[in-house]
Amino acid sequence: MPTPATQTETFNEAAARVRNGGHLSEEADQLLGQLTQDEKLWLLDGDAEFWSGMAEMSAGYNRRPIVMGEIARLGIPGLRFSDGPRGVVMGESTAFPVSMARGATWDPELEEEIGTAIGREMRAQGANFFGGVCINLPRHPAWGRAQETYGEDPYLLGEFGAALVRGIHPNAMAIAKHYALNSMENARFKVDVKADDATLHEVFLPHFRRVVEEGVDGIMTSYNSVNGEWAGQNETLMEDILRRQWGFEGVTLSDFVFGLRDAALSLQAGLDVEAPMRQQRAHRLPADLESGRVTWDQVDRAARRILRTQLAHYAARNTEEPGLDVILSEEHRALARKVAATSMVLLKNEPVDGTPLLPLKADEIASVALIGRLTNLPNTGDQGSSNVRSPEVVTALDGIRTALPAASILSVLDDDADAAAAAAAQADIAVVVVGYTAQDEGEFIGSEGMSDPAILAVFPPCPRV
């Protein structure tokens, strides 16, 4: 990063002026005018060098904020990223139920409460940019990341995404992802998704427009191509639809590492930040500027948006600084439990001997057969970019033991139908726990396709060791 001769509090002063009625765009322009050319380029990608950043991510993804565009000389904090959506990925934070479960509550006010808790936990850990407003519309139930989104209805996605944005806002900026038409996992780095205007605007884009109306601060583009152009360098998606038609004034950023293929084209098309490290832009934009493939006006356009978004947030953010004690607090754990209970959907409650089976009567149950491979498995979601490393998870077995402390438990953890039937025959009741694990449903992380020259071209030169 450029090393400054002096350090000032110019950003804080500008945010204070906006807070006291100053003009946001004028303050952003004034701040932009104080940046050197190197500092302007510094805003346009992550701060970590690519190969050392990749090594850190491999050792433990997003354990601390991923910083993009911090400039200490002017006090510019940068976009300090924490992933989601089921909680703060950093540290050991509260794991809330996955978004698919939260959508089943049909309760946006409850989702806003979750956003408030997440915002406080991430702010306490030094982040200000939440990448967990996941509102992809799954076209197929077998999509690996279906659990990260709220459901398959654009209205539901939009209202829950908007609620999460509202909850996050007092403490952090919110990013909606992945824009657009991201609903395929293993082929996401190479697939071209084609859709006509009616399909786009009636099915796959209304929920993104809704969060823009709510004031979302960032839009993360998807890996895939849309109608023949990569989403991270797709001018139709970013400059035409997102900004001209919808009036979005925040920051656009790429999905991580593989989110764009041409540094100059991405800037021309309206992508503000290449996330999460110094990758293609750091190595190619200086030459692109020299050759005229991009202009300093285009650099200024992106830099102005980045500064304006941060100024707007810091001028409006809650003045209360949450302490580390909010992380995995009893209040937040109680909220997670409340959401889990509210998300459950009872399809049938048929009578047994003339009486509905549920709720179970603890004083009448002497034994329980608990069946299924997930019975005693901590299983809060996938283990990809949304993984929340909560230090304690209540399994189904833990919950049954707490609810029925006097009952004996007969557990069958293997896929053995005969053993399950025998246990059920011996017990007063049988509880079968079914579902997916991260291996069954989750983000694809692998080396498939990494030998493709088009993929390898996104990596900067590797330094000699």
Short summary:
This protein is α/β, with parallel strands linked by helices and 465 residues long. 38% of the residues lie in helices and 11% in strands.
Structure notes:
This protein is α/β, with parallel strands linked by helices and 465 residues long. Helices cover 38% and strands 11% of the residues. Helix 1 packs across helix 13, helix 2 crosses helix 13 and helix 6 crosses helix 7.
What is the number of beta strands?
A: 14
The outline comes out as elongated
Assembly state of the chains shown: single chain
> What proportion strand?
5-15%
What structural class should be given to the helix and strand makeup? alpha/beta
- Helical region count? 17
Mean pLDDT, nearest integer?
94
